[in-house]
Design brief:
With 649 residues, the chain is an alpha/beta fold. The chain is built from 21 helices and 22 strands. Strand 8, helix 11 and strand 9 form a beta-alpha-beta unit. The C terminus is likely disordered.
Length: 649
Amino acid sequence: MLLRRHIGIIFLIHSVTVGMGLMLAWLLHFDFTLPNLGLLLSAAPILVVIRWAAMFCCNLTHGYWRHTGIGDLKDLLEAILLGSLGFLAFLRVLCGVDSFPLSIYILEAMLAFLLLAGLRVGTRIALQKRESRCSGAPIPVLIVGAGSAAVLLLQVLKAKNYLAIALVDDDPVKWETKLCGVPVLGPVDQLPVLVQRLAVREILIAIPSATGAQMLRITDFCGRAGVPFRAVPSLPDLVDGKVTISEFRDVNLDDLLRREPVRLESESVYARLCGRVVMVTGAAGSIGSELCKQIVRCQPKKLVCVDQAETPLFNLQQSMLSGSNVETVFLVTDITDTKQMRQQLMEHGVRVIFHAAAYKHVPMTEENPYEVLKNNVFGLLNFVETAQECHCEDFLLISSDKAVKPSSLMGCTKRLGEMIVSSRDPSRMRCLSVRFGNVLGSQGSVVPLFLEQIRTRRCVTVTHPEMTRYFMTTSEAVSLVLQAFTVGEHGNILVLDMGDPVRILDLAQTLIRMSGKEDQVGIVYSGMRPGEKLFEELFYDSEVRLPTVLPKVMRAETKLPGLLDLHRRLFELEMVANSRSGDLIRSKIKQIIPEYQWERPVATPLWPTVEMFPGRAGAEAFARAKVQAPIGMSSVPRALQTPIPAPEA
């Protein structure tokens, strides 16, 4: 009954609208007089029926006009043309009526389209205004980008109670034009001025194809504008159908890089891993867990995940339970337990090993020299020999840029690991290592700590304003590891071209801007810690940089100690390590690695200070956060007297 009533109302509305169009066309043709009124009145019902039938054929009789768009107007135009042809054929051919003026057919069709389209668009506008009144005032936003993604975004903003005030785009051809009725006011660098002038509350970035460097520039200007900002999904996600254009995302870790992210060459990796038994040590860590997830996609015969941390390994197991038919084994064990590792290697028939099990935190390793040597050096040495005895075919070690001219024990252990792997007998197991920089978002890295400090509105701690690091995302790190596995030869040390180093201070400022808390969070300089350097390097001065078949991967060629000589030195180091004397251990390591900067680097004397973002922090906020003396003294504000751990660079 309701459906019939609904169709009846829609038919009545269409009939009145079509009749009005015919009457107006007749008046226009006859200078607003009504000659042959009988002909007009007899033709009107025929036209109404024919128009309704044409709209029925084009599925336009539903009356659901809330989301009327270009597609609906195209269908309406098709229905009008079809109905006009039917009306003309009926009167002229079937009825033989020649007195009906030809111009009226054209005028009526034009007026019918305008009236019916206006009815639909007007209904949509009225409903949206009513919804906006019910949901409150819309949020004024400014859109970065004036391309196809912006067009799609504008179509869904009103449904999400947003009001697009303006757009910005670096293409000067688009300036002073309008996109879907919204003006394009200028380039991206005008963001701060426009946000203040137009009272914008949020910025939406509608450039899904933007590179990392472009996104960094855009987010820099967004940060200066001082309002929250988000981005539409990336093009791959849109194409794959994982998300829609209306699903905004926070600017992610990829956007913090000053270069294009490295992508995985999946075909070559698949060819090398498919059908083989693979072991990943340190599988519960940031790199290890991502390695496991990507290796599973290559359809190995079996994947053995090893870690001594039970809870993180359990979490990895839960995340990998669905979506894969690859047999996966999770082992809670220590790689320094040689007997247990030998048993597992033989039992599962492991042929490929990705070794990611290592202590990595610089301050902790500085305070525990014996434990870091036991795990990262002697554990690795025994594990490599055991793997070779158990007929493993490939062994890949994950190293670090801290292995270059190391200033910390962690960096020294990574360099010793490179020596151990590269000095192996080339006739048996293929051994290689991969050297890369800091991993954005990994456990204990600088970004999660910064984000936690920002979330709790604490001051973000930066050790030194000039400290820089090479950065990559976890997916990039794993991509490098897997690609190195396919192209590396025995003894190779492969290095990723990671672009320019990023200043830690710039990274902290970007994260604060992304959070929209510039007026609430400051930056504290806490001073450098033992083992830290102002900047990292990717190569030794003595190393020759050689290209590989992959443009983003280089090879470091250098002369290293022979196997027997290295084993003799490591045996002496183990004897010294048993003394638990940090000074003796460091002294012996320096004999093996002359480049080791054992003397602690002298940092530029810095009292801890707080930098607030200019123009954003009011006098009250600045006074609340400002530090004028070392932490712990009475002149420090109470909120800052609790020690804040400095981030791991």
